[in-house]
Amino acid sequence: MDSLTNAELMLLQIIKEHNEITGYEINKYVISVGYIEWADIGKTSIYTGLKKLEKKSLVTSFIAVDKMGKGPIPRKYSITTEGEKILKEEMIRAISTSREREKRFDLALSAIQILSKQEMINALDQRIIYLSSEKEKINEDYIEQKECLPLGGNILYERILKSIDNEIESTQNIKNYLNER
Question: I want to staple 100 with a disulfide (CB 3.0 to 4.6 A). Which of 117, 139, 163, 181 is the partner?
Answer without folding.
Answer: 163
